[in-house]
Structures are given as structure tokens and as C-alpha cells.
UniProtKB/TrEMBL annotation:
Pfam families found in the cross-reference section: Methyltrans_RNA, PUA_4
InterPro entries per UniProt: Alpha/beta_knot_MTases, PUA-like_sf, RsmE, RsmE_MTase_dom, RsmE_PUA-like, tRNA_m1G_MTases_N
Protein name: Ribosomal RNA small subunit methyltransferase E
Tree of life domain: Bacteria
Domain called Ribosomal RNA small subunit methyltransferase E methyltransferase: residue spans: 74-226
Length: 243
């Protein structure tokens, strides 16, 4: 099954954009009368029928709207950008496939890169959403200062992954919650001052295992672990705002 993306469906736009139309008509050779599965990226699938198979603007009509099953928890990963942009793109792609609600690029004391093309990351996220047949496109925030991130108070489970051999608390053993915010530091890890500030703000220091992980690996491991935690009672009831 191929999944197409049209974020403006709820605004009455009933055609695919130029890139999606070209892929649909030129590559997949879809014709008028063929069925399409489309998502708006906001939690809904749409079953549609092509009415005009134009490779610049493929027009369709909606047959039905189907709500996707909601995630068991709102998962927010705040990660320091890596020096190599490709590694963060890899993380975004895989996190979307596994399941993530929001990704924030976080500027820390030891952050090596302070600029990333947000539109590029969003394209990677859209492609991964379609590939994994999901109906919700995660929010991706541009570079946000560490102090701003830890000042958010609308998340139930708040954790900071910190390389500490004496840290016995593994993320997998944390109690289930309807929402999570996990902080992942740069290659040089968080500074001691940042750790102190996060703990004072109510974050809990956690381990991701005995191995020392690269930033993007740690972020993906944390995302996967949070997806494995059991649903909490009233999951998603207190879903944080996506903006």
C-alpha cells in the first residue's frame, strides 16, 4: 500500500501537490478511477478515488475518513544536534517509524552544531510517516535553548539521559505515564550545571544501558524504550500541546 500526504485536506484541497502527483501518476501509473489512501498528518486516513490523473495536480474525491488509532503516550524527544547533520536526519527518520510525537532540537553548552535545515528534517519526517503508514506527522522544533526546554511543565514523565556509571535507574523501569519528555545531550554530554538545573526542574536522571551511545543512537534507543512502556491509565488524556 502507498500512502500519500495532503495536509490541507480539512481546508478543502482535494488534489495532491506536484511531487506527490508526479509519483502517483508517473511512477506508480495510477489512473482515473483508481483508489488512493491519503493522510492529512493530523491523525486521519482518507480513502479516495482519482478523478483526474494529472501528473502536476492529481485530483481525487474522498470516499471516507478513518481515524487512526491514537498512540499510547505522547513521546517528546529533545536532542542536541550532532555535528554531522546526516545523523540527526537518520534519527528523525527512524524515530518517526517507531513512533514519536514531537522532536525538539536542543542547544546545550556542548552542542557542536547550531544550525540545521528544519524544512529538510520535516521532509524526512513526512517520508518516514508515509513509509511506516502512520497518520500523524510529529512536530519538529527548530533549535531551542536548554533552559527553555526544561521550563516546559506540561509533561508527566520528564527524564534526562546522563552518562553515569553509578546511575542505577534505567528508563525501561520508569512508571508509565500519558506523556514523556526525554532529554538527550550532545557527544560531550550535558554539563554538570545543566544536569543540576534539570534535576532542580523536576527531571529524573536515567540510564539507557551500560554502553556509551552516540547522540542519535541514544535518542533512538530512548524513543524505542518509551514506546515499549505499558500504556498508563488515561493515556493521552493530558496530551501536551504540540506547539
Amino acid at each position: 500500500m502507498n500512502l500519500f500526504y495532503q495536509p490541507l485536506l480539512t481546508e478543502g484541497v482535494l488534489h495532491l501537490d506536484a511531487d506527490e502527483s508526479r509519483h502517483c501518476v508517473k511512477v506508480l501509473r495510477r489512473q482515473a478511477g483508481d483508489a488512493l489512501r491519503i493522510t492529512d498528518g493530523k491523525g486521519f486516513f482518507y480513502d479516495a478515488i482519482i478523478t483526474q490523473a494529472n501528473d502536476r495536480q492529481c485530483v481525487f474525491r474522498i470516499e471516507q475518513q478513518v481515524a487512526a488509532a491514537p498512540p499510547t503516550a505522547f513521546i517528546h524527544i529533545a536532542v542536541s544536534p550532532t555535528k554531522n547533520a546526516d545523523r540527526i536526519e537518520w534519527f528523525v527518520e527512524k524515530a518517526v517509524e517507531i513512533g514519536v510525537s514531537r522532536i525538539t532540537l536542543m542547544e546545550c553548552e556542548h552542542t557542536e552544531r547550531t544550525y540545521l535545515k528544519k524544512d529538510r528534517l520535516e521532509k524526512v519526517a513526512i517520508s518516514a510517516m508515509k513509509q511506516s503508514l502512520k497518520a500523524t506527522l510529529p512536530v519538529i522544533d527548530g533549535l531551542v535553548p536548554f533552559q527553555t526546554v526544561i521550563g516546559q511543565t506540561d509533561t508527566h514523565g520528564r527524564f534526562i539521559a546522563y552518562v553515569d556509571q553509578d546511575n542505577p535507574d534505567h528508563l525501561i523501569d520508569m512508571p508509565a505515564a500519558p506523556s514523556y519528555l526525554l532529554l538527550i545531550g550532545p557527544e560531550g554530554d550535558f554539563s554538570q550545571a545543566e544536569l543540576t538545573q534539570a534535576l532542580a526542574a523536576g527531571f529524573r536522571k536515567v540510564s539507557l544501558g551500560k554502553s556509551r551511545l552516540r547522540t542519535e543512537t541514544a535518542a533512538l534507543a530512548g524513543c524505542h524504550i518509551l514506546n515499549l512502556l505499558p500504556p498508563s491509565r488515561g493515556a493521552m488524556a493530558g496530551k501536551p500541546s504540540a506547539h
